[in-house]
Specification:
alpha+beta, HSP40/DNAj peptide-binding domain, four-stranded mixed sheet
Length: about 375
Amino acid sequence: MATKRDYYEVLGINKDATDEDIKKSYRKLAMKYHPDRNPDNPKSEEHFKEAKEAYEMLSDDQKRAAYDQYGHAGVEQGGGGAGFGGAGFGDAFGDIFGDIFGGGGTRGGQRNNVYRGADLRYNMEISLEDAAKGTETKIRIPVQATCETCKGSGARPGTQPVTCTTCAGHGQVRMQQGFFSVQQTCPKCHGGGKMVKDPCPTCSGAGRIKQNKTLSVKIPAGVDEGDRIRLSGEGEAGVNGGPTGDLYVVVHLKEHAIFQREGGNLHCEMPISFSTAALGGEIEVPTLGGSAKMKIPAETQTGGVFRLRGKGIKPLRSSEHGDLMVHVVVETPIKLTSRQKELLREFEDSTQADSGKHSPKSKGWLDKAKDFFE
C-alpha cells in the first residue's frame, strides 16, 4: 500500500496555516481535480479524494491537533473517508462550495444564520450656509430594532426556541444527487437551526420590531453635495444576535438664491450699471460672511469675472478657503425719461464718428459679417 502524503503537502500549505488558508487551498484543488471537470482523467479523482481527506482532517481542530502530534496514526481510527456518499464528504464539500453559492457558517455544516443588520440611507437637505459653517440637526428614521420583550429571540419570555426537527439544528438539509451531496437552506427554520413554538406577543416571533428613532446628526463644516456621514450602529438590528447596521446620511444642498458652489469656490452673477461699466467704480458684493467692496475697472464688459480671494468655502478635506467668483452683467437701463433718452442719443451720436475706437467688438463683428456676405 502506498504511503500517504503529508496532509499539509497535499494542500500546499504550511503547518501554521489558518483555517481560511486551508479552505482557500482546498477550494482551489477541488475545483481543479473534481471528476466532473476531468471525466477522461482517472488520476483527477485520486487527487480529488486525497485533497478532500486532507481538508477533512486539517479543518477539524481536534483531528488537526492529533495529526500534528502523531501523524497519520493519530487520525486513522476515524478514517479519512474517501467514499463520495459519506457524511464527512458532504460536510466538507458543503462547507467549501456553500461559500460560492451564498452559504457559509461554522464547520461541519452547522449554520446559525447570524446576519448583520441592513445599512440605512437618509437624504438630508441643508442650506449652503449650514454646509459652509457646519450645523447639528435631529432626524427621525424608521428602523427594524431588536424586540425588547424577547431580546431578539422571537420566543415568548420564559420560553426558548427549540431545535428544528427538520434539519436537527444544522440549518441545512442535504440532498444526494449521484456522488454529489448538495446542501440547501432548511425550509422550516430558514437556516437558523431553531424553531419558535411559542412566539413573542410583541414581535410575533420575528425578533425585531419596526419603530421610529430620533437621532442627532452633526454636519461638519465644508460638506458638499453627495457627501456621506456615517453613523455607526444606527442602522437596522441584526438577526439572531448579529451586529447592527450603519446609517448613512447623504447631504444634498438646497438651491441658493445668489450663489452656486463649485468645490471650495462660489460663483455669483452681479449686475452693474452702464455708467459703472464704462467709467469704473466700486460696488458692494454679497458674500457668506457679509458684504465686501470690489473695484470695477473702467471699460468693463458683460461676462467679466472678478475674483475675491478667500471668500468662498473651506472644503471638508482642505485647509484653505476657496474664492468668490463674481460674474458681472452690464444692465441696460429701462423706463427712461425723455431727457435721459435725449442724452443717450447725443452720446450715441458722439461715438459714431469713431465707432472703431469706442466699440471695437461691434466694428470687428460688422467687418466679419460684411466679408461673409461678399
